[in-house]
Amino acid sequence: MKLEMRRLSFEWLMEIIQLCIERIIVVDRDGIVIYIDGAYCEFLGISFEEAIGRPVQAIIENTRMHIVARTGQKEIEHLHPINGSVMIANRYPIFIEGQLVGALGTVIYSDPDNVRAQKNKITNLCNALNLYKNKALNEGTCKYTFDDLVGDSYEFQVAKALGEKVARNDSSVLVTGETGTGKELFAHAIHHSSMRSDFPFVAINCASIPELLFETELFGYEDGAFTGAKKGGKLGLLKLANKGTIFLDEIGDMPLSVQSKLLRALQEKEIQPVAGQKSIPIDIRLIAATNRDLEKMVQEGTFRQDLFYRLNVISIEIPPLRKRKEDIEAISQYLLRKIERRFYKKGTMLSSEVVDKLQRHMWPGNIRELENVLERAINVLDGTVITLEHLPLYIKDQADHSIKQEPPINNASTNGTVQTIQPLKETLAQAEKRALVHALTVTSGDKLAAAKLLGIGKTSFYDKCKLYGVK
Ligand SMILES: Nc1ncnc2c1ncn2[C@@H]1O[C@H](COP(=O)(O)OP(=O)(O)OP(=O)(O)O)[C@@H](O)[C@H]1O
Ligand SMILES: [Mg+2]
Question: Tell me: the pLDDT tens digits for 325-372?
Fold first, then answer.
């Protein structure tokens, strides 16, 4: 059945207008009020009779209805302050048979208490949302607490106690120690125990950022800073870490030019994005880490002295694993549980000979190396007990060397067997090759890390690998 179209009666139209959440006013081409609804009159504090026939400017402050009635240009979602409340106003020209005859104005308002209550509600929701956002961000980035730092040895306990103590103040912390000793873990734990733990923890590995990009990564850039720049600009990592902690790992690899800009930002507590006109205030805590000798770098002129002092307010040195051999068993247990989760295994144990061997090894790659050795063992393990056969050869060999005396360099040894003496060059070459292979094993084939471990440059490392046929 076809629906019959009916004309709406005047009463219906009036009722519909009253039910609308928006308040309505209509003016003619000269801006004279020809209609205004009752609730709007009430809000303005005048009667319907007083309003009708008057110029709109006389009854509504800041109005632009008379302008729209003359220009025919609509105005949408303008903020319009009336009687101390900010209203959202829409103004539409009215055309009848193509002729501009006047304008319709609508405003939305609530009573001020209601607006305030709604505003508070929204502010609280936004705060809660930010908190969860930061928590989610931290879960992805800040994973460790002091409870995850295993080790009861005196040296380690001293470092850990200092970390726990300084976590609560806001000073910069410099964490030093050999590769794989747990510098990054310490930084996580410090942030976690600090008052900033609800805010972001942003970690940057200074060795992995090309020099040309460093400045924009840290400080961000404004829209149109350079050709190819992202539209709308880019937030720098320092800004992302606002209210939280920024962790500058391998700070010794930060280019000198960036060091000066970072120092300025830390001193002035503000950053200036590349091509930016305005400075942005930032509130961050800085934790830096390095396995390089920054003091020596300062003397050599490759690290800024002023930045070094700024970073070195509190310095925590993490002892290498070989200086806390009594921790090796407990750390191994902790790492085994961690690795087991990835391999869906349970109850893996170490035989007493293995513990003994692990304690004899020098661990140049520290806990990371230990983790690699244990992961390899779990991989080749059938039962649940890790025995000597599951350890890599170099651990067994090196452990044995460390307790054995070097054989005398003599053709006839004490027990009468003949020792072969090779030319020194040959012996050195063999030692070099062994060191390359060892470093690569420790770093699981990571050539850059291996070169670092050996204290030689990348190019020299590659050259030596080629020379000795090390893959
Ligand atoms: N005290 C510890 N207890 C348990 N596991 C640890 C401990 N310290 C470090 N680890 C583990 O050792 C590995 C290396 O730690 P981390 O990355 O923090 O070392 P790092 O000092 O930053 O090394 P690098 O100088 O090479 O960057 C990580 O997998 C970490 O989980
Ligand atoms: Mg690290």
Answer: 999 999 999 999 999 988 888 899 999 999 999 998 989 899 999 999
CB of 339 closer than 6 angstroms to any ligand 1 atom: no
The CATH code belonging to domain 423-471 is 1.10.10
User: Atom 28 (ligand 1): residue with closest C-alpha?
Assistant: 368
Q: Which ligand is nearest to the CA of 249?
A: 2
Q: Where are the domains of the chain?
A: 20-109, 142-224+231-319, 323-406, 423-471
Ligand 1 touching residue 176 (CB < 6 A):
no
C-alpha 81 to ligand 1 mean position (Å): 59
List, for residues 252-272, the tens digit of each pLDDT value.
999 998 999 899 988 899 888
31: phi > 0 → left, psi -120 to 50 → alpha, else beta; which? left
Query: Tell me: the pLDDT tens digits for 398-413?
Result: 544 444 333 434 444 4
CATH class of domain segment(s) 20-109: alpha beta
Question: Does residue 134 line the site of ligand 1, with CB under 6 A?
Answer: no
Looking at the domain 142-224+231-319, which fold is it?
Answer: Rossmann fold (3.40.50)
Work out which ligand 1 atom sits closest to the CA atom of 186: 18
Closest CA to 177 of 250, 245, 255, 247: 250
Confidence of residue 118 (pLDDT cuts 50, 70, 90): low
Q: What is the pLDDT of residues 123-153, one digit of tens each?
A: 777 777 766 666 665 555 667 899 999 999 9
The label of the residue with tokens 């709007």 reads 40
pLDDT at 414: 40
- Which of 181, 247, 342 most suits a substitution to test ligand 1, by most atoms within 8 Å of the C-beta? 181
For 112, left (φ over 0), alpha (ψ -120 to 50), or beta?
alpha
332 DSSP assignment: H
Question: Residue 151: what pLDDT?
Answer: 93
- Mean pLDDT for 299-304 is 94
Query: Rounded to the nearest whole angstrom, what is the distance from the C-alpha of residue 355 to the centroid of ligand 2?
Result: 26
Comparing CA positions, the residue from 226, 204, 311, 308 lying closest to residue 273 is: 226
Q: How far is the CA of 244 from the centre of ligand 2 (A)?
A: 19
Common-topology check for domains 20-109 and 323-406: no
Q: Tell me the CATH class for 323-406.
A: mainly alpha
For residue 336, what pLDDT is reported? 96
Cβ of residue 183 lying under 6 Å from some atom of ligand 1 = yes
Q: Is 374 exposed, middle or buried (0-12, 13-18, 19+ CB in 10 A)?
A: buried
Q: Is the CB of 177 under 6 A from ligand 1?
A: yes
